[in-house]
Amino acid sequence: MEKKCKSFETVKFQMELLMNVMDWGHYPFTRLIIQRGLSPSEYRELIDMVRDLNEKYRSQKKEGMLDFTSLLVQFAGMLHEKLDPNETIQAMKTEQVFPELMGEFLAILEREEN
């Protein structure tokens, strides 16, 4: 048991070192997932949730809807507590993860600020 604990601590330390030396400019979403310590299942839940929202977005857009605020509210409400909605949306957009949906969410947030 003690050996496993030391191995975990070693891997954790090595990951922290890598996080500090890598250029994460193109991968802010990946960095966010690592920094916030999402588990593989939490990550999969996030991606599945956003995939579902993206399908709803495309369907609603095809039907002629113009306001997607309800999807943004759903995203924020279902987002894991380890993640901030605004930061996650920006990171996903920058890393081109569901870029059209994230772009729409950013546009809604910008309109709300003004």
Task: Give a verbal description of the structure.
The structure is a single chain. By secondary structure, the protein is mostly helical. The protein has a single domain, classed as Orthogonal Bundle (Hypothetical protein YhaI fold), CATH 1.10.3750. The protein starts with a helix and ends with a helix. The model has no long low-confidence stretch (mean pLDDT 90). It holds the Pfam family DUF1878.
The proportion of residues forming helix, as a percent range, comes to over 70%
Determine the CATH topology: Hypothetical protein YhaI fold
Query: How would you name the CATH homologous superfamily?
Result: YhaI-like
What structural category characterises the helix and strand content?
mainly alpha
Q: How many H/I helical runs?
A: 6
Could you report the average pLDDT, rounded to the nearest whole number?
A: 90
Summarize the helix and strand pattern as letters: HHHHHH
Distance between the termini: 55 Å
- The poorly predicted ranges are none
Write down the oligomeric state.
Answer: single chain
Q: Tell me about the biggest sheet?
A: none
The tally of strands reads 0
Computed Rg = 17 Å
Describe what is shown at a glance.
Pfam families: DUF1878. By secondary structure, the protein is an all-alpha fold.
